[in-house]
Design brief:
CATH topology of the largest domain: Leucine-rich Repeat Variant
CATH superfamily of the largest domain: Leucine-rich Repeat Variant
Low-confidence stretches: 1-5, 144-153
Protein name: Condensin complex subunit 1 C-terminal domain-containing protein
GO molecular function, one term: protein phosphatase regulator activity
Shape: globular
InterPro entries: ARM-like (IPR011989), ARM-type_fold (IPR016024), PPP4R4 (IPR039918)
Number of strands: 0
CATH architecture of the largest domain: Alpha Horseshoe
Organism: Strongylus vulgaris
Distance between the termini: 55 Å
Largest sheet: none
Strand content: under 5%
Number of helices: 11
Number of domains: 2
Amino acid sequence: MIEWTGIAAAWLETLVDVAERVSLESVKQYIVPVVQQQAEPAQRVQRRIIATKLLHKLADILPSNEVRKELGPCAQILCQDSNSNVRTSMAQRLPVIARALKNSSDAVSLLLPCFVQLYQDDDVTVKEACMNNIAQCIPHFTNGKEEFCLGLRSYVLKDVLDRLDMCWILNTYCKIAQISQTQTENTTQQIMFTMCRRMSAFNLPVS
């Protein structure tokens, strides 16, 4: 049984590599159903992670309406997965889905709830993946939704937000960068504070 499981996983990984070399009709007929099946919670964790990779690949291949109809629901399911590694992997690929949708309303309705959920995740790695990738999605979201997203890179947002908004982001960035550096007995809280300061160091506003 283990041997057959390994073989199946190997073939799924091969699909990731060859998907872009297959005709569009074959992708729709053969590969999309496989992705939808492997994204289901009943599948093994390894297969669900591979499903996130296939979503990434297919988003660059399929027309935007097919991405919305066929891949969007899979992305939402994988963002809610019970395994943190699956959620992290999907969070890293949401910008590709957002770009492929080519419609700000679809991007907001499908993906913004995913980011909100991932940002509230109990797993630090999932949260970090969410924070790292949400900035890339901002240009694909409807104007007026920016205020729901904190800690974003200013150079990504400079064409979206006005000067007052940019000042607010800079002030917020300074507060996050200086968030409690005193030792506390709450280990979880201390990890979160450290992560905030670390992410601030990586995301110094440059514009």
